[in-house]
Amino acid sequence: MGGAAAGTAADGGLQAVLFDMDGLLIDSERVWLEVESEVMAWLGGTWTSAHQERLVGGSLDVAVAYMLELTGASAAPAEVGRRMLDGMFERLSSCVPLMPGAKDLLTELRAAGVATALVSSSHRRLIEPVLDAIGREHFRLSVAGDEVARTKPAPEPYLTAAARLGAEPGRCVVLEDSPNGVAAAEAAGCVAVAVPGVLPIPPAPGRTVVRSLREVTLQRLSALVA
Q1: pTM for the predicted model, two decimal places
Q2: Is 22 a catalytic site residue?
Q3: How many angstroms separate the most distant Cα atoms in the chain?
Q4: 113-140 per-position pLDDT tens digit
Q5: Considering 22, 27, 86, 177, which one is annotated as catalytic?
Q6: Of 62, 116, 144, 199, which cross-links 124 as Cys (Cβ 3.0–4.6 Å)?
Q7: 191-194 and 172-176 strand pairing
């Protein structure tokens, strides 16, 4: 996955479409809930959907620190993180549930020659089985959470993807499902399209909110950058 220049096949100045992964392209938040619950039980605590909501769109390090704070356990953060990654990798290696409309949109963008990137807070180890399942041909490149100094809600992941694609952030549309992800996209100067998942995302100036990727087409994305 090299850093070739962004495609310009779309009308209206659209140079690239940048996709979040968890909860946006794949229905993985429920899988994370399972894994987090298992790890929390190992730490001697309990985990609920309310706890998960505090971590949606965040980093593994933040999740581990939160779990250790809740339980007061003496486990090493690296061990807690390893158990989280192991649990997710095992599940994603056997099944990657795509969100409705995801494959159709990716197929349409690829056919039109529009540059795309996968930009996730998840570690590279978890991105790889997802790329295999979705099809690596749908993405010019990917940026993982453990490959940047500051992950979402900081803008670095999206600025990194745009730079590697040779695209201007303002001519990139970002598709996100979490407030943290939308914050990262907007801080990077990209056009944000929110598809709210676990947490609500309110409309805002310059932000588009839809119910599903089924509502997103190349024509609609191009119009946002016109």
Answers
A1: 0.88
A2: yes
A3: 55
A4: 999 999 999 999 999 999 999 999 999 9
A5: 22
A6: 144
A7: parallel
